[in-house]
Each structure stands twice: as structure tokens, then as C-alpha cells.
Design goal:
- The protein is an all-alpha fold.
- It has helices at about 1-5, 10-20, 20-35, 40-65, 65-75, 75-110, 115-165, 180-190, 195-210, 215-245, 255-270, 275-310, 315-335, 340-350, 355-365, 380-404.
- Helix 5 (about 65-75) packs antiparallel against helix 6.
- The chain has one domain: Hydantoin permease (Orthogonal Bundle), CATH 1.10.4160.
Length: about 400
């Protein structure tokens, strides 16, 4: 068992990055507004996104390269496109996840309710941890965080189900109007934007530097992390349905205010004795996302910079993580009032680029760059093609419901 756990790493980092806003905020909202009516959407989108996320570690183990290297080989324009898209969203996404983490930290630890101060503390702490410990400490930390997260979330869901007097209804629904817009957003961020597959490929290579892992072990590691995101996603929907559905509470669009409302509503229904458990559950959810995002974007941008400048000898990780940390803190100071518009921009780009990454990953995994023995099975290829059509339809649906 210890040997198996030691082999885990990139898959849990994937889970740590994925289980954030999509679970704590979106899944809880889904349960609060629609009960268990959107479980079908959660399961369906996880099935159709599965192959494209899995192609990250599959390609890395088979070739010893990241997906970015593959993009560069099949067309430099694809790598440039990724570079521009990531540059346009990385600062906003980092700020968004950090401000929610700050709100939860304030509720859990007190000290001050100033979100800017908490955001700076969290950003600087994560920055120092990553620079001093690099991948090794992140690998160890995330195992502890995910374990705490899983235990507290499943325990809270169990308690909520026992304490609930409501008659459960698992009738599935397809919302209309503003509910349709939420559905598209919910599916777009569940379990995460598809470009996280690139992060996973790079984490896999980092793990491979310190420990020998086979293709089978790498896929198993990914499956463990992916299954965790699905199970915890269902748990958060269930918590929203059990604790918040028909409560009459109107949630704030502010991440920090929402965090306080979330904990207050949970404790008012589960009891004050569960305050610490709920707070730790929510805080570890967002902390895992914050630290993995702060690590992943600089890694991908560093590798992209190396490829575009044809300079493999220089590591740009320090430059990019410093730029991301400083840029995030500057947004806290000068653009916090514009966070809504910035997050919307990042969200739209994530939604409409999902088919782009799906097609690109599939094209790469089926190319001559990929050893034949490591190419996906027929069933996985069929699922990939269906998934591409599904995600394209979903992206088009978002555009039509949002802008027309």
C-alpha cells in the first residue's frame, strides 16, 4: 500500500487543481438551485472530458515530452496560440482562486477580514513554499491536502444526509433561461478547463525525474485523481442539495462573501460543532487549487518559452512564477473592483477553447510522434470523437446563450 501511494503524485495534483471553484462554488450552487437534478450533467461531462485529460500523462510517459513539445512538433502556431491564451487568463484565474481562499482563511483563522491582506499572505506563502521545495514538496503536500479534503467532505455529506428531513428527489432536469447559462458554465468548469492536461503532462515528467514510473502506473495515478474529482463533485452537489436547496438564501457573486455564506449556511444546518470541519474542508479545497495553479502556469509558460526561443538550457520557471505572484498581487491592489469582468473573460476563453484542446490532444496522441504501442484503444478513440462533438456543441451553446 505504501509503495502504491508513493507512486501517486501527478494525478493528485490534477485533482488538487481541479477541485476548486468548479466543486466548492459551482457544484454547491448546482445542488442549492437544482437539488440533484444536474447529476446527469456532472457525470456526462466527466465521461466526455476523460480521454483528453488522460492524454496528458499518456503522452508524457510514452515520449518523455510534455504536450507543449508535441504541440510545437505538429505546428508552431498551436504552441503560440496556447501561449497567448494562457497569458491572457493565468493572472485572472490565479487572482480568482486566491481571493476565495482568502475569504475562507478569514472565516477559519480570523485575525483580519481584509481580503487583500489575506490574499497577499496566501500568495507569498505559496510562492515561498514552491521556490524552496519545488515539485517534491508540492507532491507531498497535495497528498495530505487531498486526504483531509476527501475525509471532511465525505464526512460532512454523510452527516448532512442523516440530519436532513427532506424527501430526496433524484429527478433529472434540463434547465432553461438563466438556468441554461449556469448549466453551460457548470459543465465548462467541471472538473476543470482542458488545458490542465498540459499541466499534468509536465507534472508527470517531474515525477519521472525522481521516481521510475511505468505507463500503467501513470494511468492508474491519473484514474485515482480523476475518480476523486468525480466523487467529490457529487459530494458537493449533495451538500448543496441537502443543506441549501429550498433554503431561500441568495448567494453573492463575490468569492469572498460566498465563502462566508457557504460556511455559515453549513454550520447553521449541521450545527456549530461542525464549523471547524466545514471550514477546513472548504479551505483545503481552495488552497490545493491556489498552490497547484501557482506552480502549473509558470511551468507551462517556462517550457513554452524554451521551445519558442529554442533555448532549452535556461529554466524560466523562477521568472514566470515571480511574474504571476507579482501580477496577482497588483490585481488585488489596483483591479479588484474589475474582477468580475476579468473572471468572465477567463471563463469565456476556457469555455470556447475546450474543443481546441480536445482536437489538439487527440490529433497529437494519434500522430506519428506517439509510439504505436501507447496509442489509445478503439473504445477510447470512439469516446474521444464523441467528446469532441459534445464539447463543440457545448461551446457553441455557451456562445449562443451568452451573446445572442
Amino acid at each position: 500500500m505504501i509503495k502504491i501511494i508513493s507512486k501517486l503524485g501527478p494525478g493528485l495534483l490534477f485533482a488538487g487543481a481541479a477541485i476548486g471553484v468548479s466543486h466548492l462554488v459551482q457544484s454547491t450552487r448546482a445542488g442549492a438551485e437544482f437539488g440533484w437534478g444536474l447529476i446527469w450533467a456532472l457525470i456526462l461531462v466527466n465521461i466526455f472530458k476523460y480521454p483528453f485529460f488522460q492524454y496528458g500523462p499518456r503522452y508524457a510517459i510514452a515520449t518523455g515530452e510534455s504536450l507543449l513539445d508535441g504541440y510545437y512538433k505538429i505546428g508552431k502556431v498551436f504552441l503560440i496560440t496556447y501561449f497567448i491564451l494562457n497569458l491572457a487568463t493565468m493572472f485572472t484565474i490565479q487572482t480568482a482562486v486566491t481571493i476565495v481562499t482568502a475569504g475562507l482563511a478569514s472565516s477559519l483563522f480570523g485575525i483580519t477580514d481584509n481580503m487583500v491582506i489575506w490574499s497577499l499572505i496566501i500568495t507569498i506563502t505559496c510562492y515561498i513554499i514552491l521556490l524552496l521545495g519545488k515539485y517534491q514538496i508540492l507532491d507531498k503536500m497535495i497528498k495530505i491536502i487531498i486526504l483531509i479534503l476527501a475525509i471532511t467532505t465525505i464526512f460532512s455529506t454523510g452527516v448532512a444526509s442523516i440530519n436532513s428531513d427532506e424527501i430526496y428527489s433524484f429527478k433529472q432536469i434540463f434547465p432553461s433561461g438563466s438556468g441554461l447559462v449556469f448549466l453551460v458554465a457548470f459543465m465548462g468548469w467541471m472538473p476543470a478547463p482542458l488545458d490542465i492536461s498540459i499541466w499534468h503532462s509536465i507534472w508527470t515528467l517531474e515525477k519521472k525525474k525522481s521516481q521510475k514510473i511505468t505507463a500503467k502506473e501513470s494511468i492508474f495515478d491519473f484514474n485515482v485523481g480523476y475518480l476523486a474529482t468525480v466523487i467529490l463533485g457529487i459530494c458537493f452537489v449533495s451538500l448543496g442539495a441537502l443543506v441549501m436547496y429550498n433554503s431561500g438564501i441568495s448567494f453573492s457573486n463575490s468569492g469572498s462573501i460566498f465563502a462566508g455564506q457557504l460556511i455559515e449556511l453549513y454550520t447553521s444546518n449541521l450545527g456549530d460543532s461542525f464549523y471547524i470541519i466545514i471550514s477546513i474542508c472548504a479551505f483545503t479545497t481552495m488552497l490545493s487549487t491556489t498552490i497547484t495553479c501557482l506552480d502549473a502556469s509558470p511551468r507551462t509558460m517556462s517550457r513554452a518559452t524554451q521551445l519558442l526561443t529554442k533555448n532549452n538550457d535556461k529554466n524560466y520557471y523562477f521568472h514566470w512564477i515571480s511574474a504571476l505572484a507579482i501580477g496577482t498581487m497588483l490585481i488585488f491592489y489596483f483591479l479588484l473592483s474589475e474582477m468580475g469582468a476579468l473572471v468572465e473573460l477567463a471563463t469565456v476563453l476556457s469555455f470556447i477553447t475546450a474543443p481546441f484542446y480536445a482536437i489538439l490532444n487527440y490529433k497529437l496522441i494519434m500522430s506519428d510522434n506517439m509510439p504505436k504501442s501507447h496509442k489509445p484503444s478503439k473504445n477510447l478513440r470512439i469516446l474521444s470523437i464523441i467528446g469532441i462533438f459534445f464539447l463543440s456543441f457545448f461551446a457553441l451553446g455557451y456562445i449562443l446563450t451568452r451573446f445572442i
